[in-house]
Structure formats: structure tokens, C-alpha cells
Automatic annotation (TrEMBL):
Catalytic residues identified in the record: 242 (charge relay system), 334 (charge relay system), 369 (charge relay system)
Domain of life: Eukaryota
Coiled-coil boundaries: none
Residue ranges occupied by any BAAT/Acyl-CoA thioester hydrolase C-terminal domain in the UniProt entry: 216-424
BP-aspect Gene Ontology terms: acyl-CoA metabolic process; fatty acid metabolic process
Record-given protein name: Acyl-coenzyme A thioesterase 4-like
GO molecular function, one term: fatty acyl-CoA hydrolase activity
Matches recorded under InterPro entries: AB_hydrolase_fold (IPR029058), Acyl-CoA_thioEstase_long-chain (IPR016662), BAAT_C (IPR014940), Thio_Ohase/aa_AcTrfase (IPR006862), Thio_Ohase/BAAT_N (IPR042490)
Similarity annotation: Belongs to the C/M/P thioester hydrolase family.
Annotated ranges, domain Acyl-CoA thioester hydrolase/bile acid-CoA amino acid N-acetyltransferase: 20-151
Amino acid sequence: MDHQYCEVKLSVQPCRALVDEKFKVLVQKAPPGAQLTVRSHHHSENKHEWEAFGHYICDSTGALNLSEDLSLGGTYEGVEPMGLLWSLRPVPGSKPGLRLRKMNVETPMEVTVSVYQGHLSEDFSEQRALAAVVVERWYMAPGVRRIPVTEHGLTATLFLPPGPGRFPAVLDLWGGGGNLMEYRASLLASHGFAALVLDYLTNELTKTTGKMMENDYFEVAFKFLEQHPQIVGSRIAMWGLSFGTAMTLKMAVYSNVIKLRCAVCYSGSHIQPVDGSVKDIKEYMGKKRENIRVTENQEVIFRDLTLPVPKDPAFKVDMGRLQCPLQVVVGLDDQSWPAYESAMDMKVMMEEAGNSHLLTLLTYPHTGHLIEPPYSPYVRTSILRPFPGGVSFKVLWGGETAAHSRAQEDAWRKTLLFLREHLYDMRNSAVTSKSNL
């Protein structure tokens, strides 16, 4: 190592934070005008290596501030203080089709931020870092409680914010991959909302009986929340992603049991047999397999499965009957669901019915299907087995790295505001903010 670089200092503040909080990366005591590479590295729970890096030039004092200074190259460019997270990608030579998702939310995502001499793009393991800091990124704030739920035949996890409550709540529905994806629900609890994430595709009853869930399964989950002593039963929302959007809209409009204060739908559609169950929706889409497209790179595009938008009212939720506020989030380059076409049809239906004042529509250019919490690594393609037990595909999700990542940050912020507006009694209850780590 050049002796001029021996005193280089690196700081990341805060070094322990929630995943949706920004950090500040500073380099000091480098030679003036030095070329440096700042790199992040993450060893995932499933034993894969991820990295991101930017190329920088120090100022005349030998300092570098990622919140102000340009990355001239690397996995991101420009002034991008969080680029070290959202541009994380598998290291060269990794297994193709990887997607980074936190499975154990009771432990942090650990990221090592390092600084290197020169502008490097490969072979980091063969170089000696000038300085390094380990950063902890948490989905669960201190005091958040994780409670597995198995009663009433449910396969679910409840997250409760710190304190005795009572809390407004969110029923969290994920998409066609199934399983309990807990990271969004735990992050919601870190912001003051009780959240029940529900497995409705790979749940224990399905494993035991082989039968997919009927609609009353979702009603049972809602009643569990409604009757919980630490939850305000009159202040419950549903949040659906992808296939979860279909079930959220069905329940919001047609259920006589589920009475929502509001609903949030990301990257999904109202197109489905309205009298059907999970199984019926799956079979409806299966009948349109000829609409599946495959790129020259063997990436599967599912977005045309339910297009064109049907005119028959038996195959789309009657949005004119919706009685609660609804936020719809759409990536305009979604290659997995016809989210934009569906949103436009929903908007027209609600305008004709006179309830369009209930609709908040957020659309994001160059944004794909997987709209995750802020600073989550962007994934354009990954391996997916849609509906457990089926065939695995290399799925094209769509989007462009920087634009998609900005959409994730903006949509999350606006969704939290939407939930606070409709779930909190702003006159009598203080809004719970995220806890300091």
C-alpha cells in the first residue's frame, strides 16, 4: 500500500439503521485528488456474494462525501448516496437468476463498506482495502415483536410495534411465489403499524390437503386482526403485491366480512374471475398460456397473460363498488402483470361509478414489477416458480436500475403517508415514527 494512503479514514453514519433510512459515507485523509473506489459487499443468508461500487475522485483536501460527490463509474453513476445498496448485484461468476431477499428479519442485513486505491471494477478479493466499516441494516426496530400465528388454520406472522397498543393494522399479501415473506410486515411494524403477513399459497393447510385456499381464509385472517386486543379493529388495511393485489381487490369489493379502512395495491390487476378462489384465478391465467412471451435471452414475460382487459364484468372486479380509499402503484415497465392497463381500466370504472375520489394512482416510468422497500437491490430478472409446485422460469420483471430504485423510495414514502392518513385518528393519536437503532 502506498504510504500516502495509510491514514485513510472511512465512516458510515448511522452504521446501524432501518433499511429505509439513508446513511452518509465519508472518506477523509486521502491524498488530494486521489482516485478511489468505494465498494459495498454482502454475504447473503443463502451464501451468495453481492457487491456494488462507485468510482470517485477526492477533493483538494483528500475528502470524499458520497452524499455530494459524483460516482464516475461502477454499478451506479452520479450523486447517489444510497447507490451502494440499491445497485448491489451478484459478484461475477455467481449462479444466474439470483434475487436478494431477507428471510430472517430478526437479524440485520450486514454490509461491509470498503474504500480502495484506484478505480477498480473486479478482483476486489485480491486487493487490500484502505479502510472498511460493517453496516447493519434492520427490518425490525428495537421493541418490535414477531409472533407466529397458526390458530384458526392460518399460516401467518404478526408483527406488533413497540408498546402496549392499540395499533392500526395491515394485512400483508405477497405474490405467486408463496411462503411467508416477512420483511415488509416487519418494517411496517417498525413504523407503528401492526402487520400480519399471510401465506395463502404454501400454507400448512395447502401442504396437508393439497387444496388451495378459499376466500374465507382471508376473512379468517382479517377477523384475527379485528379481534386482537392490541389492534384497533376498525382501522385495518390490506396491502397486496402482484397476485396479492387480485385477492386484495376481491376482498375489498365483495367480502361481507372484510371492512377495510383503506387498501394498497402494488404491481397487480383487478382482472380475474370475480366469483372465483385462488385456484380459479390460477386456472384462469393458465388457460391463456399462449400469451406468454419469451425473449431471445430465454426470459419469460407474463404480462400478457390476462390481456386484453376483458369487457365481460364476470372477469374483473367491479371497482365501482369499492367503498374505501385505494392506492395503486404501477411500474410502467412491469413485464410480469398488466399493471398499467389494469390501473387505467380501474380508473375509468371508478370515474363512471362516481367513486374515483377514492383512488390514488402512482405511476413510475422505467420501473418494473418488483417494487420493494427503499434501497432494496434492483433485480431485472430472476428465477421464479410461480405458484408452488409449478415449473421454474427465468422471469423478466422489467425496469431500469436507477429509475426503479428511485420509484421504490418514492412509493414507500407515499404509501406510509397514505396509511397514516387513513389508519390513524390524527386528532387523538400521535403518529408513531420509526424507532432509533
